[in-house]
Amino acid sequence: MIETAQAFGVDIGGSGIKAAPVNLEKGEFAEPRLKILTPEVSTPKAVGEIVRQQLEHFEVPESAPVGIAFPAPIHVGEKLGYMANLDQSWVGVDVTEVFSEACGRPVTVVNDADAAGLAEQQFGAAKGQDGLVVATTLGTGIGTALIFNGELIPNTELGHLELLKGKGDAEKYAASSIREKLDMGYKKWAKRLTKYYSLMEFYLDPQLFVVGGVSRVSEKFLPYIDIKTPIVAAKLHNEAGIIGAAYYASTKQK
Q1: I need a surface site. Which of 19, 80, 87, 150 has the fewest CB within 10 A?
Q2: Which pairs from 211-219 meet CB under 8 Å and 24+ separation?
Q3: Could you read off the pLDDT of 133-154 as tens digits, one per residue?
């Protein structure tokens, strides 16, 4: 692994597994990332093998903290309760244990939305922000991360807040995938997002919202979200999961 890297991050998704050494002084990749397609049958053994290959590809030393962003709530020492984006054989598995055994070293696993939120707080759009930061990822669903004075409050699922009584939760109404499915214009979508962020504003009274997932086109909808709390686009885009996982591991593996 290149000398400018202090940690190694992995971001596991339903379609691809991305990894890179991370320069934690600058909050950026120290080398270009390596992406390997997620196996069609994405069992713990199959996914663990790919992560091991990525560590070997970058020649990650034993001393380097390794962080893995994973698409499910993570509770250290506990088995996974449910799985949405990978094979159902993950249910009932200790995720940290699986990856530590596959990689032959201790690793730190963190929820993927939490990893992205941490990256934005440490290196991106929320850098230096005190108080409560709510980072959201608008995609197939809505991922959320809460960071209070730089400390992660893990495993929040605020994409499931009920927006319409008896008609489902927020991500079934305001996720980016819903906008695409309905071929909805960005300004009309912003009205739905206003309802969502207004509800979180009421419950949480944060100092800042950070919006990721579709941040590259944020100018098309962000100015039309009508709330009092400052709301800004994420800066790290698709790199946030890897960078956040690496940073989180560096705080846990010392």
Answers
A1: 150
A2: 211/136, 211/138, 212/116, 212/120, 212/135, 212/136, 212/137, 212/138, 212/236, 212/237, 212/240, 213/136, 213/137, 213/138, 213/139, 213/143, 213/176, 214/138, 214/139, 214/176, 217/186
A3: 999 999 888 999 999 999 999 9
Please give the structure tokens belonging to residue 252.
């846990």
Q: Match 């209070």 to its residue by tokens.
A: 148
pLDDT value at residue 254:
63
* Closest among 51, 2, 50, 52 to 28, alpha carbons compared: 2
Contact 199/177 with Cβ under 8 angstroms? no
Asked if 140 contacts 216 with a C-beta cutoff of 8 angstroms, the reply is: no
Confidence of residue 85 (pLDDT cuts 50, 70, 90): confident
Task: Say how many C-beta atoms besides its own lie within 10 A of residue 11's C-beta.
Answer: 28
Q: How do residues 49-77 score in pLDDT, each as one tens digit? A: 999 999 999 999 999 999 999 999 999 88
What pTM was estimated for this model as a whole? 0.92
Phi and psi based region of residue 104 (left: phi greater than 0; alpha: psi -120 to 50; beta: remaining): left
Please say whether the beta carbons of 169 and 159 come within 8 A. Answer: yes
Contacts of residue 236, defined as CB under 8 A and 6 or more positions apart, other chains included, come to 27, 116, 119, 120, 123, 124, 125, 212, 243
Write out pLDDT tens, residues 2-50: 888 899 999 999 889 999 999 999 999 999 999 999 999 999 999 999 9
